[in-house]
Structures are given as C-alpha cells and as structure tokens.
Write a structure and sequence with these properties.
Number of strands: 23
Helix content: 25-40%
Radius of gyration: 22 Å
Distance between the termini: 58 Å
Shape: globular
Structural class: alpha+beta
Largest sheet: 7 strands, mixed
C-alpha cells in the first residue's frame, strides 16, 4: 500500500495540491492564485480554464518537490469552492463563459421574483437552503438565458454543468475523451437542485428554475473510487474523494460526532455543526446541508452558518485603502491600540449571509469619532469576523438545541493571535487550533483514503487529530455583552440599505 495520499484544494482565490503521509503531516505543497474578475458591481467571476491550468501546475510542482511518482500515491481527493457554477462544452472541454462565483449577486431580481411566485419555504423545505444569490441554481439559469444560443445547445446534449469539483473531475478523468461527469452529495446539496431527503435531483426544483436535468452530473458519495486520473503526473491514480471545501474541513477537523463543530476563517467564514443522520431544519437563518457520505453508509447532515466576508475584509483594507502591504500586518497594526475605539465595521459588501440573509444590506463603519485612527479600524475589521461568528453560533444552538462547548478552527486567519483571543472572549468558549492546519485538503485526503483502504475506518481518522493551541476566554461578561450589543446596533444600520 502506498504511503501517501494527495488532495487538490481548489479555493476561491487559489488552487493547491498537497501530499500527506499517514499521520496527516504534509510532505509537499504547491499553490497558485487565479484572477478575480469583477465585470460590474456585485459580479464576481473566475476563468475555469485558468483554474484547470493552475491545477495542472500545482500537481506538477508538488510532485516534483516530493520526488514521488504516481504509483506512490494511494488516491487523490478534491475539495472545492462550492456554489460557483461552470458550464462547458462536452465535445471541446471549453467553458461557455466565465464561472459565476458564489459571492456574485447578479441574480437578485430573480430571487425576489421566485419569492413572490413560490415563496422561500418551497425551496428551503426541499433543499435546506433559502432563496439567495448564493447558490448555484439561479447562476445556471442566468447563464442559460444570457449566453447566446446556450439553451438550444443544452437540448442537443452538448453542454455540461458542474461546480468546480465536477469540472476538475471531468478533466482529470479524460475530459472530452471520456471524462467522468460526477459530483458528490455535499456539492450537490449546494446547487439548490438536490432533495435533501432523497439525495437526488428534484424534478420540481428543476422545473422551477427551468434547468434541464441532462446537463447535471451524477450524484455520488463523498468517498468512493470515481475513476482513474488519465493524464499528467497523477496518471493512473484513483480519484476517490470529493467534498465541498467546508464539509472537507468538517471531516479534516474530525467533527464526526453529533454536536461537534468547526469554523473556517478564509475569504468568507463558514461554521458547520454535525447533526448526525438527522436533517435539522433551521428557523434561525442557517442552512441545512449534507455534511458527508462515506461510500454506502448513510449521509451525515450539518447545520451551517455562512458569512460572506471575513478574510476578504482584510484584503479590502490592504488593496483598496492601502493601510498595509501584506495581510499578516493587520495584527501588528491592530495591536497599536488597546481596543476598537468605539468603531464597528459591518462588511456587508454584497449583503449579509447567515443568520440575516439580507441581500439589500451594505457595508457600514459605525461609531467614528476624531479619536479614531487606522489602528482602531484594523481592530474593528478583525473583530467583525468574531462578531459574525457569534451571530452564527447563537443561531446554531437555538436550531440544534445542542450547546457548543468549544469550537475547532482552521483557515488562513487562525494564525492571528489577536483575532483568536477575541473570538474566545466574545463567544465565552475555548477555541482549538489543530496541529495540522490544512484541514480542508486533509478532509478530502481522508475521504479518498477511506475509499481505497489507505485508512481502515473513522477511528483511524479521529486518532490523527490533536490540538496545537487553545485560547480561553478572559473578558469580563459585562464588557462582552456591551460590545456585542453595539455590534448588533451597527448591523441594524446596515440592513436594507438599498
């Protein structure tokens, strides 16, 4: 049996290929960014062909770094940015247009129209998802209506749809020469086209969005051998795991028991709680989603709170205001002051996601006085992520009835000590950072490893997790609640701005 397992981690801003050993330690890693395309206000696009090229590059680089050959890898898994919609031509492999990214808000008017016609509960009851610009369904519908001749091309069977996992899997397994058109239940659950009960495409939902089923991939489990990689440095390696990035982090953090939860701090912020084999409908602004499904085992479900802007706010402060040269510098700037100076920053650049789901919200900086300086703004930017996380945690506990005793964290922002301590303070809970920080890629690797027997069972997965750092709350309760009260007041100024 090969000693190593590989994972393609295709995210919103970059693509990575990571090779892990049996203990979850990284042997090699390569990463490449891709362009963020903003054709109009509220529109966010990626070039799928560029993402595919970056994937090939990072695979080649990581394999060179490691000195391994394809036969040294037991399998490869994929984790991917979810909801981002790609349509491509099956005969050429070429995308018909840029991918519409999960953050894109161009379908706001269609959301309002469908809410009037059918009501949001028609969709939430079947899919666990509210009507929103967030999910793939309306992005697909928009492309079918706005790319010239595309609707008629779907009728001739020439067009395929997938989120990025499907697009990569198709290309990896042969592309136009027999590529496998497949997705897993976690990604399918984010299209707003899959029924949570049956784990199959729902005919009534397809009619509501006017999307032909012929363009959709086969829905599979998150851990099975889909096929062999057909080219390049990984030729002959089984492709055996697919998980949407946040579900992959849930697995990588080994939140495999009911009530266990993790939060990923990346471009956005995504908190998932394992609810077991029970579908828990949300009445507090959360998403009910598939957590994972390993082979023929029953699906495990999760509650999720999605925050649109987390690390992206730090990037905005860097790129748009030029307050520092590198994102890591925000902590040093924030430490030049003792507190936020009364400033609260609500980053509703494209509306607010969970638990508010207000697409008409816009960003607000509240509490400005002449005393405020760039250090206070930097601190308010970091605190915004922690406040948004508390919003989600409170909703999650109300929906699930399960008190959250601690929170496992991962993602690029967890190296920020100031943010993690404030997160512990404002939640009044311990925050645990794992020894292996690349939990998203690790979750996809675990899924692939289970499928081919590289890992025996979930007990072996659990045994690999250890905490590298724990933060404990140290804030006075009255100060905690006063800060949170002012945060909620600032949010009330941001909602329904347009």
């Amino acid at each position: 049996m090969s000693k190593y397992i590989g994972a393609i981690d295709q995210g919103t801003t970059s693509t990575r290929f990571i090779i892990f050993d049996r203990t979850g330690q990284i042997l090699s890693c390569a990463q490449r960014e891709h362009r963020q395309i903003y054709p109009r206000p509220g529109w966010v696009e990626h070039d799928p062909a560029e993402i595919w090229q970056r994937t090939l590059e990072v695979v080649d680089e990581a394999m060179r770094q490691s000195g391994l050959q394809a036969q040294d890898l037991a399998a490869v898994g994929i984790s991917n940015q979810r909801e981002t919609a790609v349509l491509w031509d099956r005969t050429t492999g070429e995308p018909v247009a840029n991918a519409i990214v999960w953050q894109d808000t161009r379908v706001e008017t269609q959301v309002a129209k469908l809410e009037q016609e059918l009501g949001s509960e028609f969709f939430r009851g079947r899919t666990g998802l509210p009507l929103s610009t967030y999910f793939s369904s309306l992005k697909i519908a928009w492309l079918l209506e706005n790319v010239s001749g595309l609707r008629s091309r779907t009728e001739s069977g020439d067009i395929l749809f997938g989120n990025v996992d499907t697009f990569l899997a198709w290309h990896l397994t042969g592309g136009k020469s027999g590529g496998i058109h497949v997705t897993d239940v976690t990604n399918a659950s984010r299209t707003q086209l899959m029924n949570l009960q049956t784990l199959a495409w729902d005919a009534e939902l397809l009619r509501a969005f006017d999307i032909p089923e012929e363009i959709l991939p086969r829905i599979a489990s998150s851990s099975e051998v889909y096929g062999e990689i057909a080219q390049g440095a990984l030729k002959g390696v089984p492709l055996a795991g697919i998980l949407g990035d946040q579900q992959a982090a849930l697995v990588g953090q080994t939140c495999l028991e009911t009530g266990e939860a993790k939060n990923t701090y990346g471009t956005g912020c995504f908190l998932l709680m394992n609810t077991g084999r029970k579908i828990v409908p949300s009445t507090h602004g959360l998403i009910t989603t598939v957590g994972y499904k390993f082979g023929s085992s029953e699906a495990v479900y999760a509650l999720e709170g999605s925050v649109a802007i987390a690390g992206a706010l730090v990037q905005w402060l860097r790129d748009n205001l030029g307050l520092f040269a590198g994102s890591a510098e925000i902590e040093k700037l924030a430490l030049t002051v003792h507190d936020n100076g009364g400033i609260y920053f609500v980053p509703a650049f494209s509306g607010l996601f969970a638990p508010y789901w207000n697409s008409n919200a816009r960003g607000v900086i509240a509490g400005l006085t002449q005393y405020a300086n760039k250090g206070h703004i930097a601190r308010a930017v970091l605190e915004a992520t922690a406040f948004q996380t508390r919003d989600v945690v409170e909703a999650m506990e109300k929906d699930s009835g399960i008190p959250m005793t601690s929170l496992r964290v991962d993602g690029g922002m967890v190296v920020n000590e100031l943010l993690m301590q404030f997160q512990s303070d404002i939640l009044d809970r311990n925050i645990l950072r794992p020894k292996v920080s690349e939990t998203t890629a690790l979750g996809a690797a675990y899924a692939a490893g289970l499928a081919v027997g590289w890992l025996r069972d979930l007990n072996e997965v659990r045994a690999a997790w250890t905490a590298e750092r724990t933060w404990r709350p140290a804030m006075d309760a009255s100060a905690r609640e006063e800060k949170y009260r002012l945060w909620k007041k600032a949010v009330s100024r941001a909602v329904d701005w347009v």
